[in-house]
Design brief:
Number of helices: 2
Strand content: over 45%
Number of domains: 1
Number of strands: 8
Radius of gyration: 15 Å
Shape: globular
Largest sheet: 8 strands, antiparallel
Length: 143
């Protein structure tokens, strides 16, 4: 998943054909694995990351983000992507617990493990929350 994220949104990957009207989709395939991140919106947005193994869905995460400032600072995207590039291997959902970049502070917390988890992240500027995102999900099992 970390490699997939580095080759899609976090790494400025190219958009795939949209799967739904108005969606932005990014995909990455490596061997028997396929990763797709699809989202709607850009100021307030909602999306899903999913992983398939041999064309069977095995994992997914839903997320909803809100930009809470009238104007987003110039370094916002750089801070967010910098944090996402530092996702811990044991918890590759979003970024690390803390990250600073472009004069902003990124904070992420979660509970659970790759099988079932939930969490939130935020970016702060001078102690004020300017962005918030919640995420949840885990393993997919089929009969």
């Amino acid at each position: 998943m970390i490699e997939a994220k580095k080759n899609t949104y976090t790494g400025d990957g190219e958009l795939s054909a949209p799967s739904r009207p108005g969606s932005k989709d990014l995909s990455f395939r490596q061997g028997d694995y396929l990763y797709i991140d699809t989202y709607l919106g850009n100021l307030d947005f909602i999306g899903e990351e999913a992983v398939w193994h041999q064309d069977k869905p095995i994992w997914s995460m839903n997320y909803y983000g809100v930009k809470m400032a009238d104007q987003v600072p110039e370094g916002f995207k750089r801070c967010l992507k910098g944090a996402l590039l530092k996702a811990p291997v044991e918890a590759p959902y979003r970024g690390p617990a803390r990250y600073s970049g472009a004069g902003l502070e990124y904070i992420c917390s979660w509970k659970g493990d790759i099988e079932l988890f939930e969490g939130k992240e935020q970016i702060m500027e001078n102690g004020r929350v300017i962005y918030r995102l919640v995420f949840h999900e885990g393993a997919i099992r089929s009969t």
